[in-house]
Design brief:
- This protein is α+β, with helices and mostly antiparallel strands.
- The chain contains 6 helices and 8 strands, in the order ααβαββββααβββα.
- The chain has one domain: 2,3-Dihydroxybiphenyl 1,2-Dioxygenase, domain 1 (Roll).
- The chain has an 8-stranded mixed sheet with strand order 2-3-4-1-5-8-7-6, with helices on one face.
- It starts with 6 loop residues before the first helix and ends with a helix.
- The relative contact order is 0.20.
């Protein structure tokens, strides 16, 4: 993937991003084609680029959420026309604003899928992932090229806990969580 300098270069990276996601899923030996893609996320280091992308996303749809997550602003845009990433499509794009972490390149960073759970806790999400993809966590733990991260992002006004389990390889990430962004945004609005 290349370092995106604007929306056009970001769109050129769509196919490469999708290929890297498919490679990650192949390494994990899981098939997510039957899951609904909740959203995709862009990562940037440069605030000027982030503002430019925010402007373009606003032209392509509407800003539906501005939240502080782990002490940094994250915008969610709902696009008028869904973006296609191989077998998936989504009309939701997450644009976090730069913080203290520096990414190796500025481009698409992750896809996030919803895996409904009986209990919206990390252990409940682990159980749901095990039911969906038996042996996934044990397999991933043995793979040196995969980074696994369990997290519980803190959002101001959040009423639904949305724990996340993420699998990262070659600068891209696949994340699983129990609630869709639409459910999370609705919960924040009613707070």
């Amino acid at each position: 993937m290349h370092d995106a300098s604007n929306w056009v270069s970001l769109m050129r990276d769509q196919a490469t991003f999708t290929d890297k996601i498919n490679q990650l899923l192949e390494t994990l030996a899981i098939d997510c084609t039957q899951l609904t893609l909740d959203h995709v996320a862009i990562r940037t280091n440069d605030s000027v680029l982030t503002q430019s992308l925010a402007g373009h996303l606003s032209e392509q749809g509407q800003l539906i959420s501005q939240a502080m997550v782990n002490q940094r602003p994250i915008h969610i845009y709902q696009l008028n026309t869904p973006l296609h990433f191989g077998a998936w499509q989504t009309d939701l794009v997450e644009l976090p604003f730069p913080h203290h972490k520096t990414y190796p390149f500025q481009s698409w960073e992750h896809m996030e899928f919803v895996v409904p759970c009986r209990h919206a806790t990390l252990s409940g999400l682990e159980d749901a992932l095990h039911a969906q993809f038996p042996g996934l966590l044990a397999r991933a733990a043995k793979l040196r090229e995969i980074t696994v991260k369990h997290s519980e992002p803190q959002v101001a006004g959040e009423r639904l806990a949305n724990p996340t389990i993420a699998f990262k390889q070659n600068g891209v990430c696949v994340k699983f969580h129990p609630y869709s962004l639409a459910q999370i945004i609705a919960s924040e609005a009613s707070a």
